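Lab notebook page, bench 4
Experiment: in silico fold of construct C2
Operator: M.H.
Input chain length: 266 residues
Purpose: comparison with the prior construct
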Amino acid sequence: MLSLWSNIKSKSQTALSPAQLDNVKSYPQRFRSFVLLLLLAGLFFGMASLFLPLLLLRPSKFALSFSFGSISCLSAVAALRGWKSYCTSLLQAEHILLTTLYLISLGATLYSCLVMGSYLYVLVSAGVQLVTLGYFLVSAFPGGVAAFNSTRLVISRSMEQMQAEQMRKKENDEMKKQIISSIMTPEAKERLSRIAIVKPDKAAALEDTIIQMAQRGQLPGQIDEAKFIELLSRTGAAEDQQRTKVTIQRRTYFSDEEDADDDDDF
């Protein structure tokens, strides 16, 4: 049994190249370095978050803590994947632009806090540094770039839909204002504005009713104050009728339940 296990172990070791075998043997050590550097990065980022309220007074404390946290975080990934292979991958054609941008933003952050002392430049350079660092961290894992691109597309589409919805809402509001201003006299609009201050929901319902009547051609002329009061009383009567109907339905429901309970008692 022992000879069989030694044969399997020797075959598995000979199947790997010397570089791969060294990577397998050094993985526990690299993982420990990764955890330690990641904890160190968390410590520096925590210090940066504490110094963030003091950015106007002491920008150097935030910038130094943030930069050291960024370097520690990137070093953690390099320790896990191997320093030589990871540094070589950062210098490849597809990563050289981001690597240059990260180094420039890192130097700009340190220069802004140590030489210029400007919190505005510190914020801009730290933001660029954070974006490039996030992309490096995402691209360090398999499928990370695809997941990042998918998330970016989903967020951009959601933002476009929100902007389109806001534009449609703005256009509808402008159309309502134009219709209201064209079919209502100044006295009626003033009364509507007073109602909107006290009861905005009721004023919105009145505006919708007036716009629907105007679109259907049910308004022969402009709505003066007398017609507006008549429309207001009609809308109030309809609301009271609907409220009374709901109350009757509730009473009927509860009375049926009480009758059912009485039948159960017998």
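Observations: Confidence is low (pLDDT under 50) at residues 8-16, 240-248. The chain has two domains: 24-141, 156-255.
Next step: discuss at group meeting.
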